[in-house]
User: Which sequence fits this backbone?
């Protein structure tokens, strides 16, 4: 856990090159999975992944280069929302290609990396014991259900049709 | 007291971003992560296997079914790859690279959700009240998990363990408020680690069962899927999309927006409402139902 809080490092051109290559690898794997699972043409989905990778790249670059204290998640969300707005000229191009990449195809690849990455926490997990597991399960279940039930009540009160 | 809260708040917002930035930078900027081709080829193989098997539906009873999505196979197989002795090309170093790369790939996932949100922006405005108020639904965890944690023998750890779902931003808030070596921080570290290992799998099953059992609005499930980390969001979206295939874009839009709110508005709810509420409930309940401390025998450092 000590890794959570230690010093920052500088971004170089070399670093950006690493980001681009990683995103390219990720895109190719996702498009192959997207083709096998959903039979979307690889060419179109590669363009879609290219758009998403570019948004990511701009977001992480802005987080590090701009003096504002804003997380890349926020930059990426804002850029993604803006270029897809129905009034934007970019909208039809972006939607056509990005819709070729299924969300679940991206997630499937993403979680493979997560699975390998979380192997590191395995020994700490085993040491924590069953009480921590029970509390964690309760925390996740009650947060999820609490959120779903409140959302449902508000949706019904504001008259949103199912 | 008031000043303390405000300064804590500033520090924690800075910390939240540093966690992501440092992890990513340290792992992937110094080394050349793409050279770890064993790692990437393994991921490709896992993805091909998972997509070829496809989703499996298990009927628990007539009305309740659990769907297991390819995303769960790749995650569990990834963990097995790391733990399996014969697989020598996936070691601690690769796990660190995978973790750093994952921080970058979250961006692609967020970008995809953002594009869906942009496309359905009118719906987001229309559903504004539900999206904002469901964040308060997260507080249910305090009312349910805190008494149980006390009954199980946790002490001050309960305040860290039950204030929220305990992903990176909340860990930063608790560490910042109570200090790295405090029992509260120990509590949220435990939650963080257990959540990392079982959270994604558990929320996927929970969603499957909830979607087939509870008669809630499809958008409510979509908003609830955004409660935790990006991977938990993703794992919960799988069964939700499978249950309501006609509403794909809207569900993605709400899930993405709700996850964004969890990361931005959510930490302020934790700072200003959840932690004070935990403290209050702890001071009321601990003398009544608290047990002898178990932390020593139970392996907490």
Assistant:
């Amino acid at each position: 856990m000590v890794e959570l809080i230690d010093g920052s490092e500088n971004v170089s051109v070399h670093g950006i090159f690493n980001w681009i290559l990683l995103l390219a690898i990720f895109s190719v794997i996702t498009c192959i999975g997207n083709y096998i699972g959903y039979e979307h043409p690889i060419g179109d989905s590669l363009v879609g992944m290219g758009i998403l990778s570019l948004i990511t790249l701009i977001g992480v670059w802005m987080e590090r280069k701009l003096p504002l204290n804003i997380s890349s998640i926020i930059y990426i969300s804002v850029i993604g929302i803006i270029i897809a707005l129905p009034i934007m000229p970019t909208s039809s191009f972006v939607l056509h290609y990005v819709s070729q990449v299924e969300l679940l195809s991206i997630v499937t690849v993403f979680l493979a990396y997560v699975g390998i990455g979380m192997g590191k926490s395995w020994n700490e997990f085993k040491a924590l014991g069953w009480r921590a597991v029970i509390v964690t399960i309760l925390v996740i279940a009650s947060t999820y259900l609490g959120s779903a039930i409140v959302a449902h009540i508000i949706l019904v009160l504001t008259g949103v049709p199912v | 007291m008031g000043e303390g809260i405000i300064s804590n708040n500033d520090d924690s917002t800075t910390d939240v971003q540093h966690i992501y930035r440092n992890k990513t930078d340290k792992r992937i900027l110094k080394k050349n992560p793409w050279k770890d081709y064993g790692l990437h080829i393994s991921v490709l193989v896992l993805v091909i296997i998972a997509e070829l098997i496809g989703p499996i539906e298990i009927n628990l009873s007539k009305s309740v079914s659990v769907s297991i999505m390819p995303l769960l196979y790749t995650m569990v197989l990834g963990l097995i790859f790391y733990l399996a002795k014969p697989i020598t090309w996936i070691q601690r170093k690769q796990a660190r690279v995978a973790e750093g790369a994952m921080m970058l790939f979250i961006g692609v996932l967020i970008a995809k959700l953002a594009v869906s949100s942009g496309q359905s922006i009118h719906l987001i405005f229309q559903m504004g009240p539900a999206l904002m108020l469901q964040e308060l639904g997260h507080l249910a965890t305090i009312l349910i998990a805190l008494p149980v944690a006390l009954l199980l023998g946790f002490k001050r750890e309960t305040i860290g363990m039950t204030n929220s779902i305990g992903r990176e931003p909340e860990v930063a808030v608790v560490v910042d408020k109570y200090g790295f070596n405090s029992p509260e921080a120990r509590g949220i570290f435990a939650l963080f680690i257990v959540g990392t290992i079982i959270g994604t799998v558990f929320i996927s099953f929970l969603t499957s069962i909830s979607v087939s059992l509870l008669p809630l609005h499809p958008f409510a499930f979509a908003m609830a899927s955004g409660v935790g980390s990006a991977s938990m969001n993703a794992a919960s979206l799988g069964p939700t999309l499978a249950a309501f295939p006609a509403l794909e874009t809207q569900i993605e839009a709400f899930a993405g927006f709700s996850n964004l709110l969890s990361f931005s508005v959510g930490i302020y709810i934790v700072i200003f409402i959840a932690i004070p509420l935990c403290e209050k409930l702890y001071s009321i309940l601990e003398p009544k139902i608290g047990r002898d401390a178990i932390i020593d025998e139970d392996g907490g450092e």
